[in-house]
Amino acid sequence: MTNQESAPISPEAARILEESISSVREALTGLKYGNVSLTVHEGRVVQIDVTEKKRLKPN
Length: 59
What we know:
59 residues; alpha+beta; two-stranded antiparallel ribbon; 2 strands; elongated
């Protein structure tokens, strides 16, 4: 990773970022095993895929 200085973002961009973070948090809530995949287009999260795995106990 590079150490980049981040420019201040607009209030609209900050709102969109907070919504994205909230959506990721919601996707992670209650997930025990699985994957959360984000699709980003032009710097914005446009899709969140959640794959949940169920672990079965052997008989």
